[in-house]
Amino acid sequence: MTTMLKLAWQSLTNRKTTAILTIVTVAISVLLLLGVERIRTQTKESFANTISNTDLIVGARSGQINLLLYSVFRIGNATNNIDWQSYQAISKNPAVKWAIPISLGDSHQGFRVMGTNQDYFRFYQYGKKQPLTFKQGNEFTQTFEAVVGADVAKTLGYELGSEVIIAHGISDQSFNRHKNLPFNIVGILNPTGTPVDKTVHVSLEAIEAIHVGWESGAHLGASPSQEQLSQQSLAPKQITAFMLGLKSKIQTFALQRQINTYPNEPLSAIMPGIALHELWSMMSIAEQALLAVSAFVVIAGLLGMLSSLLTSLQERRREMAILRAMGAQPKHIFSLLISEAFVLTALGITLGVIALYLLLAIIKPISHSYFGINIELTLLTSYELTLTAVVLAAGTLIGFIPAFRAYRHSLSDGMTIRI
Known about the structure:
Number of helices: 15
Shape: elongated
């Protein structure tokens, strides 16, 4: 077998141009197949790691996908708000370790504004239980202070001390901005690859303050100054949702049932892990389409290799006849062609894997900065190794077609082959 592989290698080196083109074709196919698989799995993992170590998310009665979208991904709006008294009652439940209130509804130049408290910076986690950390500054302590995510700071060119004008509602227009109540940036968070990067964080008291004089989305009353507001009670009356961390995971289902049957107002409590899995399953069609496209590209690459081998076969009939004259049997000719297909496929896979890691190293910072996808340069997984083994086996099997034709020709051809 070793001798046959050496002979196949020497044969391929005599046809360098054709062999290199075939190897590159297989390499591109493998690169796309493994690249799609790696990006798919890393995207799914980053998606699942958007929120971590949070046991329940509570909001007004609605579907769990909708609650997940607006509370975690800042997409869409809540069906209703939650009474502050309900939040306080549930957060004081003996099973609750910590609670993070969330108030949504405003924006700043296309980025969502979220009202919360200091517990958000203490307990909110993403990825593999990673806490929020500050690139610059620290959390807000005063009413008109803000903490911005990494994307907000980068896109808008904000630094510590920059001024932020919040707009009423999702649309940021001149007529609905709270111009008389600017916020001062006191903290910039490190990148997380999650919606936190695209969020402006302020206190719950600040949300109450900027809405004094605003009724039903319209500016109807007088707008008090910051000095006047500092003398008023700015305790929140309602919030959009809140997150809960429990003392024991065993208590999750029991507390979820209590919240879902809460007597004072209709509430929904969801487990973010289950909701994330359901949301990802809704996008499975696109996931399967990507895999199908990459599989067809691999098939096209292998068919290209088959075409190359068949095309060169007619030109090599004299070579086969010479080998027969030197004592090679038909089975040796058969093995030679299969060995060539094996070598071409193996080299193509090797080149494709090398190109994959080079490409991943290049796009890793780009994908994290712009898409929030953290691509890790890990060794090939067992599934990826299985894919490469399938490609290698398919490429070797492809070689049986020209090998069989060469076998038949070697039985009938003599030294009188005309080229």
